[in-house]
Amino acid sequence: MEAEDKDNTAAGGEPEVKSVTSVANDKACTAVEGLEESAAVTKFGPVNEPSEAEHSDSNNEGTTIEESEITFEAPTTSDTKGFDHSAEEVDDVKEVHNESSSDISEPTAGESESVARGIKELTPELTLVLVGDTNSIEIGSKNILFDHDEQTNVEQFSSKLYDFCGRYISVINMLGLQNIDKFPLNRGVHAFLLLLTNGLHNSQYSSGVQWLEKAFGKESLAYLMTVVTHKSDEKCESAVTDLKVYNSFTEKTYHTCKNSMMDENEIIALLKKIDVMVSENDPHCYSGLVCDDNKEQKDLLDHKSNKEERIDSSVSQQNQTADELEKNTSEIKLKCDPANEPGDVEHSETNDESTTSGGEPDVKPVITFATNEKGILHTDVDGNKDEKSEKIFEEINRKEQYQQESETLLSRLHLQEKYHQKLTPADFLRISRPVKQHHDLSEKDLANNFLQRLMMLDYRARYIPVKQDSPEVSHLKPVPQNSETDNDDFDALFTAKIDSDQTKQSHVHPMDVQMAVFHCSDSSLKQNMITKLSQCQYALPLLVPDPVTMDVECPLWTFRQIRKSWKITQTKDDSNTVTMKSMPICKAETPMVSFFRLGTLSLSKSQLMNTLINDRHSTFFHRNCPGSTKSRHLLDGVAEVAWYCPAGKPNDAFSDCIAFCNLHGDALMIEKQRKILMEKSSVNVVLLPTLEKSDQSWTVISALLKSPKPLICLIVDNDCGAAEMKEGKYKMGLKDRSWSDVSEELRGIIGKILSGPHTFFQLETMAEVSGIRVDEDDTVCQEGKCAAMKIVNLLEEMDVSKIKDEYLPCQGQLWHDWCKINKEQYHLKGNIEKEKCKKQQELERIRQEQRAASCSELMKLFTESLSSLPSEEREYFLKWIQILLDALSTDDLSSILQKYDEKWSEVLDLKKKHDKSDQLISKQTELEKISAKLQSATFGLEHIFREIGQIYEAHKSLQEQTKMEETDWSKYPELAAELMISGHPMELMDGDAGHVPLTWISSLLDEVIKKLGDQRVFVLSVLGVQSSGKSTMLNAMFGLQFAVSAGRCTKGAFMQLVKVSEEMKKDFQFDYVLVVDTEGLRALELAGNATLHHDNELATFVVGLGNMTLINIFGENPAEIQDVLQIVVQAFMRMKRVKLSPSCVFVHQNVTDIAAAEKNMDGKRRLQEKLDQMTKLAAKEEVCDAECFNDVIAFDVQKDVKYFAQLWEGSPPMAPPNPGYSESIQDLKNIILSKASQSKGTTLSQFKSNIKDLWNALLKENFVFSFKNTLEIAVYRKLEVQYGNWTWALRSNMLTIENQLYNRIENGKLDKVDLGYLFKEMSETYEEIKKDMKVYFDDDRDKEMLVQWRGRFETKIKEFHDDQVRGVKRKLDEVIQQKNACKKLDDKKTEFEKMLLQKSKELAHELKDKAKDEEELEKQFDSVWSGWITELTGDTKPIEDINLEQEQMSILQELGIEWSLIDDSKSCESYKDISMIGDYFDYVTLNKHQELCNKSQQSEDSRRENRNTKGQGILTTTWVSVKKLFGFRSIRQKEALKPRGDFPYEEQVLIRSLIEDVEQQSLHAIKSKPVATRGYSPTYLQEVAKNVKEKVTEFESNRKYALKKEFTIDLLLYVFDMAGNWISESHNKFKMNNDAVTFVKSKKIQYYNIFKSFCKGNSSAVVLGEMICEKLKVSTVEAVCNKTAIDLAGEMRCSVPAFNGNRLNLEKYVLKSLAEKEDFDSYINYIRHPRNRAENFIGKEVKKYIFRKHKDKALNILKKNVDDINKLVSQALFTATEKVKAQRGDTDMWLKKFSSLLNDELTFNTICAQNFSDINKFDFLKEEIEKGLASIIDEMSSVSLGKMKEFRLKPDQILIDQLCNCCWVTCPFCAAVCTNTLENHSPDDHSVPFHRPSAINGLHYRGTVEMCINFCTTEVASDHSFYPHRDSEKTIPFKLYRTGGPKYANWRITADESKLTYWKWFVCRFQKQLEDHYNLKFQGFGEIPKEWRRHSKKEAIKSLDEMCE
After folding, report:
1. By the 8 A CB rule, do 73 and 35 touch?
2. 353 phi and psi, to 5 degrees?
3. Please, are residues 1148 and 1166 in contact by the beta-carbon 8 Å criterion?
């Protein structure tokens, strides 16, 4: 590479001339100059023009004649006087008229003169220069401003403008121009028009102004006119606002117009603005680059031409005449900017031969002038240029060419935009398309592919094959057949001239790709890139020229993350001592050997260096590497450095670490880098040819020989052996010598030199070198470093092992103690509630200490910097912190690790000898101390973030208690969230404490959710043994930053977000991959059981979190693999049991031969067998039924096992990564993403919830029983609410249907209800509900979780629907049955009414003229009324009232119960509370079985003795050795409480159950009797009494005691009392409906009014109207109240918080109401009869809503229903009247029609039309009814809401039916009620978040009066036991409570932290009442902890909300 000569072969075989120098070719020269003089068409081709960029790969053929164009680089001072030519020569100028013409035609002399004269005569008024984007205008003949069809870059008079405004205006097109040195500017510029494309104006303005300032100077900005162009259909009003942000922009020099430039008004306005600007500018035109007349220009032109001439000598010797050259001019392609034309873009780096493929010279005139500040070259007296000017001239051209080539290269790689808008790590830290491993790539994909593969540690990233658009091999033109001779064959084989159809295009040099990516990356990505290059054992750029400015930069920052480890071998006294060293490479002081090349050489310097360092790996890229080409651009001038790191082995090349530096390119031409490296080097090695003293290279060598620095000269064309010329100066010939011999000798020389005194090189010292730029000097980097240094300065003088204790106290012993105590909460012993309170106090105390210690100076500085620094500076700050902290601990860690290594070896040796002496124990103790010191000395950024988390947790926990205001600590989660989103890993589990800081993690994720939204993530976790390469694998796979450095193994678990790229989102259902990296299993720091427990805990946690878990197996040791598999299988089994279903992939790393398919198959078979074996073992431990691994998790051994080769290709530290490892990484990534594409992942909120659930369950002993999926619980509760909505929709619709059918039955219009009709009526609503259910289950965000309940709830809804329909049918059938039973009476009622009407009418006629006043009429009516009753009902027997009390007494006496006992019970009313009392001992007599007392007493004696022996304070002893929990109590001993051992607690429970059962059975029996339809019968109560007696007798027969008569009496009276109300109400209803006398009496008022109306002489129509209104009044009230009841129930269900949720929600409000009321009796009622209490609560809430809180709303509902009825009746009146009138009907017809219209809504009894047959004016009847109706409506509007109680439907009962039809099973320990909304929710367990102290249910310790205050949720985490039954002899641990029997098995009681403040408050508030109620005491083990008494009622109520969240 270094020896390449870049010859210039043009495409297509045409000559490329880079300078016009031939003196003989005067005419050709003149032609070129003349072209320039006459402003010939010149085309500039900027790199960034789309047309050229897009076709840069396709123009491989030579330019055809038709496409040829004469282009050139013109001098900046181009006045014709600068050229010494005669006027005649001007006449010979050849002007190119058309780009497509093949010949340059010669104009006539006359034409030439005319053109010349025209040019001289025209002096433009204005000269305008167009700059900006080429796409901003449409150039064409209709463009007024620039009217030429073809674009030109020289002055053009605009004929369009002249025709338009009569002004001579010159327009110069510089659109898209990159470099003005190539442009002639002969006059001043009046205005620069910066043309901007609308929409891109911001970016184009910024770049345009920068270009203008750079090109013409800052003064040119005063002449700037900004023009925003837009399409004809666009608007660009906002552009001016956008541009105002720039200081250089002024609105008065702003214009906007269409991009066609055809609008005359717009052009006039533009010219006016230009004129104004010109008039205001002084001078009026800009002349900064206007040419000076300078004679020396021709001389300079000649000099430049000679200097740049590179025409092959064979071509220059041809004796071409001037005419011949002129003839070929048409075929010459003269280019101004080689980088800018398509053909040249591709060939700018490929012209490696002196001729084109056609053998013709390629002429390229490069005519560029270097000027001084005044634009004039320095010359001496004789007119010759001085050396300074010549150097400036060369430097300018070299920079120009370099920049052009850089632009070309970036364009080919599609990186143009990225040079300014840098690539960032975020561009690659994302899930994108898989990297193509074995496919050729196009150039546009090279950069991306290179970086992606580099991030995966694939060192072959340098050798990416490139897809060629044309074949590499030239296709020779065939030689004619008839001329086939030997000479022809010879010529064809060896000729340099090849006629080819295609020209070979060189692909981009691999190192150009690397360096281009380097230049286009920001500092963070550069650092990542260089770190990865270092891991790939590649050389790293040390000195890098900038591709634009060519300034030299040292990228010191990029080295900061690199650490190197090596082993130094020192020989002393014939023995070798090996010392290990590990440190950041920036800090390492090592010798440096620098290699240089002088001149062009045939040997590769880089290849030689590789043989010294690593002959198996190309550390330095060389010419023989794959993909190398002769053309390279960005590598020349780059100095690369690599370090040789010895392994401490005999075959090490060097005994210590050495830096090798390689300066690419000819060192003679790269002066700055050469001098720096020679200064810094310990040894300089120079490759050179044999020199002459006149050679320039000799100057360099001479200086080196004089320098004191050692020098080794390698002479490539000399075969001399190695020799020392003088001290420290060596030479050696390389000619005809093998690489191995040379490298061996060279190693020897270098080793010899370095064994003596020598200088050392340290990277950090590069910052001190002058003349170069160091990236760390950037302001942002310095600010970050400055902030970091403030922190590090605090720590510099400290012992590293003490830093954390001093500055990070919250995470030290305090945090560890907190974790230990927190875990102990779940393994309590003794008096567990007291113990728990004690531990919670300790936890609070630790938090207070943490808070007090949280203000360390270090944390203040860190958090201030984190929050105040801008994002870029903050990134630097964090990296500097990590770098500086690593540097602090490097030395300490190295020495500690070495000591640990030594001590560990000693312990192993002793163990091998089976030495069990004190020495082994002593060594192990020392090892533990070293381990502790190692942990203390490990200090990094993760520890600071851990401290932040602990500070936050401490403040947060105390804030909840003290209500303190939030301060800075509250912002910590937000700061951490920003970092996590930007790609920083965050600690999930503290590895040192083995604990998850839940509060911190939850808040952190909450902030992430706030910033990103609740995005879906795919959680990928990894699990494996320690140091098995888990973090390395994840880093390589996703480009992550998990710590992998030596001595810094991952502790705990870390999480990092990886974004899914936009192009990949369509393939996935999630937005991010969240990677969880974990510490290794079987950690050395832990031992024995601790290791196993820790590993199981970690594995369960990680597997539970992940949607997929990578199981990383390392090596092939069967024992290690088995241990890991057992842990993993157990973890997956636990997931299955708690209904989590992650997937897994096994990664088997470090397998020796992964290519052997047979071996892999065998390995997979053995793995499957092991997994199955481990499954069986785990199944026994987890009590799970599983025979193979596939029973636990879906697993395909063929697809889900991946074998990895070892990471390193050879032995570290010099081994590069194995390419096979990188391929395996890519394959594994593809497998993961393929599986992930089938997963929906989880939301961030679900992930947060999973963390909490898993960790809380792991803290407890039994994970499976303790796991509580809070997210699943929340989703289920939400589903319960939805279920309530669905059932309510069905219920309310059914109520409406029921109401309508009820009215029809009452109106006699329906005598049978068909079930099919009801289903049909409900079908529409039911179908809607089913649709809603489908949408809910299909579209809800938690649909994956909901699917498990879908089938059950669909079934439940169907059952509910069917039950509702059948229930309504049953009720309506009863109504029909009752109607039929009363048919005879109903017929009589009709007759009665008919007769009453007739009699009233007759009486009225009799008294019509006799009785005048109201009193007289009433007296007369009363006198006959009694007679009418007797007359009408004389033959009917009246129904008598019942005397229930007398009935009850008779029944009791019939049962043989003494009257005195009955009287006593009735008088004291004790029977009313029989179900509520806490003590039933007074009802018991023990004389029946005296042995019970004796046996109990003996047992009690033994218990007491046991308690006295082991101490009263040990609850465990009491509960395990004594038959605990089912205690004894003394009842009704009010004077003194004595411990009773004669009546167990369970018997109390049984008696209470007897009472409840008897009550329910009796009420059910009574309510099943047809009292309302057939009346009451004394046998009903007799049956109930008999049943009660039998139940009591049956109960006594199974007990060893008898129940006193008082119990039976009280129980009977209690049952009678409960049934009495219902019997009375039902009998009254029966009497009202079936007693004729009662019916007739009820009609008195109605018929008195009729009588009175007739007396007044009213017509029949008036009387009929009054009768109808009277009937309507009753039915209207009923209809309105029933409808209002339904509506109010619906309204309250939606708006009353207690009613609009699920069963748990109702329970919460019931408990709240009890607390607010603070009534003990109400509590006892709730405890004993929770459903009754809930119904009572609903009733009270309904009353409160209707009559107090929302009375107005209730009245509005009622009024609306009144209005609806009014409308209904009015419409019926109208319809009936119109129909009768139309059909000329009678009164009977009118009544039938009217009543039929009201059938569905109102009950309307038939009126006999016989007495009103005289009515014929139905409009009058209608009016009369309307008058009466109006008064009814008025009266109804003010009706009391309490009226609803009188009717069939009541809102409270509707809500009770809706809300209380659920589960009411109580906890077997504390009697808390299951809160599941479904009544039968099997197979789900019963559960309740409101467990309570057992004392509330009367539990106490047997043989004492000490109440049990323990919560069930605490008991199940303790070591206590209980007896499942009274007769049990065997106790069951609470942890295994489910094994106690059926009533225990179906309850789910999870251990929690007993934050149930509500019940603690209740116990304290009602302590005295509870003691009195149960006749027990809160003392001894039952003593209430004092902490409980601190809770207020407000806190108690608040705790209910917290528990229901």
Report:
1. no
2. -115, 160
3. no
User: Residue 1019 in contact with residue 1012, Cβ under 8 Å?
Assistant: no
CA 1925/CA 1560 separation, integer angstroms: 25
In this prediction, residue 1247 carries a pLDDT of 92
Distance of alpha carbon 1735 from alpha carbon 441, whole angstroms? 76
- Phi-psi region for residue 637, left (φ > 0), alpha (ψ -120 to 50) or beta? left
pTM attached to this predicted model: 0.69
pLDDT attached to residue 5 = 40
Give the start-end residues of each E strand in 1597-1653: 1602-1603
Instruction: Tell me the DSSP string of 260-298.
Output: T---HHHHHHHHHHHHHHHHHSSSSSB-TTPPPP-THHH
pLDDT at 949: 93
pLDDT tens digits, one per residue of 681-707: 999 999 999 888 888 888 899 889 888
Give yes or no for a contact between 704 and 732, defined as CB atoms under 8 angstroms apart. no
Name the nearest CA neighbour of 1080 among 1049, 1107, 1054, 1108: 1049
Alpha-carbon gap, residue 340 to 53, rounded angstroms: 9
Residue 1364 burial by Cβ neighbours in a 10 Å radius (0-12, 13-18, 19+): buried
Rounded Cα gap, residues 312 and 358, in angstroms: 13
d(CA 286, CA 188): 5
3-state secondary structure of 1917: coil
Sort residue 998 into left (φ over 0), alpha (ψ -120 to 50) or beta.
alpha
pLDDT reading at 563 higher than 60: yes
Q: What is the C-alpha separation between 557 and 896, in angstroms, rounded?
A: 28
Cα-Cα-Cα-Cα dihedral of 1165, 1170, 1172, 1176, to 10°? Answer: 160
Share of the chain above pLDDT 90, in %: 19
Residue 1806 has phi, psi (to 5 degrees) of: -65, 140
Within 13 Å and on the Cβ side, how many CA atoms surround 1778?
6
**Element of type H or E holding 257:** strand 254-258
Instruction: Report the alpha-carbon distance of residue 1668 to residue 1792 in Å, rounded.
Output: 12
Q: What share of the chain is helix, strand, coil (3-state, %, to 5)?
A: 55, 10, 35
What's the rounded mean pLDDT across residues 1691-1697? 90
Distance CA 1256, CA 823 (A): 10
Q: Is 986 helix (H, G, I), strand (E, B) or coil?
A: strand
**Which residues have CB under 8 Å from 634's CB, separation 6+?**
406, 409, 511, 512, 515, 516, 519, 547
| Cα gap 554→776, rounded to integer Å | 9
Please check whether residue 327 is in contact with residue 411, taking contact to mean a CB–CB distance below 8 angstroms.
Answer: no
Q: How far apart are CA 1416 and CA 1655, in angstroms?
A: 12
The helix or strand, by DSSP H or E, that contains position 1631, with its residue range, turns out to be: helix 1605-1634
203 Cβ contact partners less than 8 Å away, ≥ 6 residues apart: none
Q: What is the pLDDT of residues 1824-1880, one digit of tens each?
A: 888 888 888 888 777 777 777 778 888 999 999 999 988 999 998 888 999 898 888
Q: Is the peptide bond before 283 cis (omega within 30 degrees of 0)?
A: yes
Coil, helix or strand for 1931? Answer: coil
Q: How far is Cα 871 from Cα 853, in angstroms, rounded to an integer?
A: 29
Q: H or E element: which one contains 688?
A: strand 683-688
Q: Tell me the C-alpha distance between 872 and 226, whole Å.
A: 33
Q: Which range, of 655-659, 1045-1049, 1096-1100, averages the lowest pLDDT? A: 1045-1049
Determine the Cα–Cα distance for residues 557 and 763; give it in Å rounded to an integer.
10
Residue environment code for 1168-1203, b if the CB has 16+ CB neighbours within 10 A, otherwise e: bebbbbbbeebbeebebebeebebbbebebeebbbb
Tens-place pLDDT, residues 1713-1763: 999 999 998 998 898 889 989 999 999 999 888 888 888 888 888 888 888
Distances in Å between the Cα of 91 and the Cα atoms of 33, 37, 330, 1030 are 12, 11, 18, 81
